[in-house]
Amino acid sequence: MFAFSTSSSSRSSPKVSICLPTCNRPELIAQCIDSCLAQTYSNLEIVIGDDSRDARTQQLIAQRYPNEPRIRYAMNRPSLGQARNVANLFERASGDKILLIHDDDFLTTDGIEKLVSLWTRHPQLEVAFADQYEADHTGAVDYDASTRLNTAFRRTKDAEGLQPLPGRTGLIQMFPNNGWMANAELVKRISYREQYGMCCDFVFGTELCLAAREVFYLHEYVSVYRKTATSISHSTRGTTVAASVSAYAFVEALELPPQLEPSRKLALRRLVPIVVSVYAKNREPLLGFKIALTHLFAYNYGFSMRLYYHLLMLSHAVVARRPQAAVAVAVAATAAVSAAVVDAVADPSVVTDRVTDHSELV
Questions:
Q1: 87 and 209: one domain?
Q2: pLDDT single digits (tens) 226-277
Q3: What is the mean pLDDT of residues 94-111?
Q4: 39: pLDDT confidence band, cut at 50, 70 and 90?
Q5: 125 and 155 housed in the same domain
Q6: Ramachandran category for residue 139: left, alpha or beta (phi over 0 → left; psi -120 to 50 → alpha)
Q7: If pLDDT is split at 50, 70 and 90, which confidence band does 298 have?
Q8: At what angle are helices 326-346 and 305-321 packed, to 10 degrees?
């Protein structure tokens, strides 16, 4: 565990419901539960929803925590799936605040205390989140990787505090998929929705931040993100039902106020190249070409080599499906990119965009 020096919680402190969805990972969940029970903040419950196909997790909890009143365990029969399991946990939660932690991750010893304390300083606060450590499958923390992880998602010292545009934090994926805390009423109102498949974490985080009046980012570590090949999204990665594909469609369709349009653009800078690559690999080149050529800002307006690599991938996909159409598609794509580059050189606003925002370019 990772301990930090903070003041102790008072008896009047709000009750925190730790919502812990799990599925077929008894070898990892014990460390997660232990980290919840070891918190310096005492007024909490651990609400577990088990979607496992067998009874191993149920047996582990019964044997390891037989007399622990803070644990409220339930096995789902039939299994609910990721989104419905989390939504059900939110409904079962009895606390004033809700914190979500996945079964392969865990909390720092005073993670909850740090997050709860923010409400004392900001009584109108609705959502709070902080930094994540990155660990390998064994739980060993990589400190350099942790810094890179948080920096990649704009979780840096200069961003600490109440967020001027709360909705922006969810759109640009600054908001983490777990280890956050929020008012229970707001969490239950937004909840998880099954229709978004593997990107339900991202959709929930975005909608939560869009709905919140105040969101606070704390530049301190409160949780540990474990990199593992058994994550829920791993089995769909690189397919057209991957989280990135659903997230792209969600961001495109969102109705946003004008002040959040730059945030949509930042989100698409990250998502578009991933989605185009997915469509190329899955031999759906026409969709890939359409997305790439209508979002050239995601490729630095033609000045990114990644664009040409993706166009080559898409052309290969065309050849695989319709050899006779490959030349025509390649010519059309080249002409469109060339025109976009000419426009970029001629348009001062595009040049300004290229110079001032390099954060999402890859």
A1: yes
A2: 998 765 544 445 555 678 999 999 999 999 999 999 999 999 999 999 999 9
A3: 98
A4: very high
A5: yes
A6: left
A7: very high
A8: 160
CA-nearest of 70, 65, 4 to 42 is 70
User: Is 305 found in the same domain as 281?
Assistant: yes
Within a 10 A sphere around the Cβ of 230, how many other Cβ atoms?
14
In the chain, what is the straight-line distance between the N-terminal and C-terminal CA atoms, in Å? Answer: 35
Q: Is 5 contained in some domain?
A: no
pLDDT > 80? residue 335 = no
**Structural domain ending residue among the three candidates 220, 236, 252:** 236
**Containing domain of residue 324, as a range?**
243-356
262 by Cβ neighbours in 10 Å (0-12 / 13-18 / 19+) ranks as: middle
Number of domains in the chain: 2
Tell me the C-alpha distance between 143 and 26, whole Å: 26
Chain-centre distance of CA 84, in angstroms?
Answer: 17
Check pLDDT > 80 for residue 359. Answer: no
Question: Can you read off the two tokens belonging to residue 343?
Answer: 């426009």
- The residue with greater pLDDT, 306 or 10, is 306
Regarding whether 179 and 67 lie in a shared domain, the answer is: yes
Task: Return the sign of the alpha-carbon dihedral for residues 301, 305, 310, 313.
Answer: positive
CA angle 118, 121, 125 (to 5 degrees): 60
